[in-house]
Amino acid sequence: YNERHIEDICICCGGFEIHTQHPLFHGGMCAPCSERLLERFFLCDDDGYQADCTICCWGKSLIMCDHSACHKCFCEECVDTLVYPGHAEEIKETTTWICFMCAPQRVNGLLKRRIKWRAVLKHFYDQESVRKSSFKSVQVLLGFKLTINFVPDFIEEWGPFDFIFGSTPPKTNFFLPSKAWYFYQYFRILQYGSPKEKNKKPFFWLFVDNIVLDEEEKDAASRFFQVREISAHPVASHNETRMHKRDYGKLALKLIPSLFPSLI
């Protein structure tokens, strides 16, 4: 490191074949690390924190930021290599740790945060998406015909899916055969369409209740899905009254920039 500029070193893996510059910190990135960051930077775990290290997107022993508005993680390898050896252990011994993206101090050892990192991150996704000839295809199950004797035998054949969406019908006086039946059927489809346990690929699902389930049915849905519902933004119904939709699911909205970089 003493004989080279940080821009000439991949700060993710230490390689010297530089493809581009890291969007958040001063330093280079090789092509494989750039590809990995492009695909995984916006992935989040069920607890809302980043699934991977903010710097390299592959370190497994992660330290989480304690700032209430931050969900970033840093792996011990990057911290010890780029700041100084043993710093990761020092962080773990502290009660509260504010990460390198949140702290006022921009420079920590070799780790120097970019001033306008948000703009640089957007530019990184813009240029990398243009460079790549195409993104990997995403398999989505958006809709299905529900009948009383419906058995989703075809779903395993059509899958595996990356995203499965379902919903109750619009709020009307007619439900076949009952309101709760729709999320029961969706839950069955989810069992067929979800990746197998050994498959580590990202998978997301979303079930929308169009304000038709009562409290008991909502509780049942939460038990089946093992998550509590969240209220979406208000939407106007046909008679112009205001109402909310209730959503259940594992949906990483931050994945959108990796599919449509111009939206970041």
Account of the 3D structure:
Keywords: Metal-binding, Nucleus, Zinc, Zinc-finger. Residues 1-130 form the PHD-type domain. GO terms for molecular function: enzyme activator activity; enzyme binding; zinc ion binding. It is found in: Nucleus. It holds the Pfam family DNMT3_ADD_GATA1-like. With 264 residues, the protein is α+β, with helices and mostly antiparallel strands. 28% of the residues lie in helices and 14% in strands. It has a five-stranded mixed beta sheet with strand order 7-8-9-13-10, covered by helices on one side. A two-stranded antiparallel ribbon has the order 1-2. The chain is elongated, with a radius of gyration of 22 Å. It has helices spanning 31-40, 76-82, 87-93, 117-131, 153-158, 179-193, 215-225, 256-259, and strands at 20-21, 28-29, 62-64, 73-75, 107-108, 111-112, 140-141, 163-167, 204-209, 230-231, 235-236, 242-243, 246-250. The protein contains eight helices and 13 strands. The chain starts with 19 loop residues before the first strand and ends in a 5-residue tail after the last helix.
Helix count equals 8
So what's the oligomer here?
single chain
Query: Which descriptor suits the 3D outline?
Result: elongated
Backbone CA Rg: 22 Å
Counted beta strands: 13
Mean pLDDT value:
77
H/E topology pattern: EEHEEHHEEHEHEHEHEEEEH
Structural class label: alpha+beta
Helix share, percent:
25-40%
**Taking strands numbered 1, 2, ... along the chain, how are they ordered across the largest sheet?**
7-8-9-13-10
Pfam families: ADD_DNMT3, DNMT3_ADD_GATA1-like
Protein name: DNA methyltransferase 3 like
GO biological process, one term: post-embryonic development
Subcellular location: Nucleus
